[in-house]
Amino acid sequence: MNIKLEIGESVIQYLKKDNIPMNLAGSVLMILMALYHDNYAFLEQLDDRNKEKQVMLLYQMLYRKGYIEETNEEELAEALYKLTEKGELFIKYAESTSMIIESPPSEISTWIDDYIALFPEHTRGQRNLRGDRDSCEARMKWFMKKYKYDVNHILAATEEYINSQAASEDGHRYTVTSDYFIKKGTGVDMTSRLAQACEEYDPNSLTPKQDLSRDTI
User: Fold this and answer.
1) Residue 170 — pLDDT band, cuts 50, 70, 90?
2) Considering only CA atoms, which of 181, 171, 183, 178 is closest in space to residue 214?
3) In 3-state terms, what secondary structure has residue 5?
4) pTM reported for the whole predicted model
5) Is pLDDT at 162 greater than 60 in this prediction?
């Protein structure tokens, strides 16, 4: 679901008083809101659309002004930074004084549940291979823009991957979660297991071109 945020005048004045450049206000708000709502998929997309140096400069500015702090090494976080108390209070204020409008659902939202359902159901003591729906949808939007595979091809290639994992000696021990299967990492470290599966999938063959069962987490 896409969100449109109409910022209240008092929020703009707050940022001005804190010497936040107005040409960066939109990016600042998006980063802080994504951190507040644990929307790491959006942060990855933001990194993809901007040069790494530009994004890091934004993080450094927010760090200097006390909105964010570095995550501890002991924390299993997907982001390098987290909100400080100042950052959390600001976002709560911004959301309470601004208008949030939900846009109509995307076309991907009509079939993303079918994609997720291909992954094994979560059982007690096991990893949740089905991942997060919002994260899957955001990553799939990125995938559909970058690659030109249709829905049927994506679902069939994914099903072939899942079946090959189930048939392996290790079962689903090393199966990639549904969201990371689409896209994992950012920049030069970004990988797409789904892109590889789609490339290897042959709709005219009953067997995969390559053994897909040797994945790592």
Assistant:
1) confident
2) 171
3) strand
4) 0.49
5) yes
Residue burial 71-86, b: 16+ Cβ < 10 Å; e: rest: eeeeeeeebebbbbee
Task: Report, in this order, helix, strand and coil percent for the chain, each rounded to 5.
Answer: 55, 5, 40
3: β partners: 102
DSSP letter string, 145-177: HH----HHHHHHHHHHHHHHHHHSTTTTTTPPP
State the Cα–Cα distance between residues 212 and 208, nearest whole angstrom.
8
Residues 22-81 pLDDT 10s: 888 888 888 898 888 777 767 776 665 544 567 888 899 999 999 999 887 555 455 678
Contacts (Cβ under 8 Å, ≥6 apart) of 173: none
Q: Are strands 3-6 and 81-83 parallel, antiparallel or unpaired?
A: unpaired
Other C-beta atoms lying within 10 Å of the C-beta of residue 140: 25
Taking all residues of the chain, what is their mean pLDDT, rounded to a whole number?
80
Closest CA to 184 of 147, 143, 153: 143
Q: List the structure tokens of 56.
A: 């890091």
| 3-state secondary structure at position 184 | strand
- Long-range contacts, 90-93 (Cβ 8 Å, 24+): 90/14, 90/32, 91/32, 91/33, 91/36, 93/11, 93/14
**Hey, what are 127's tokens?**
């990893």
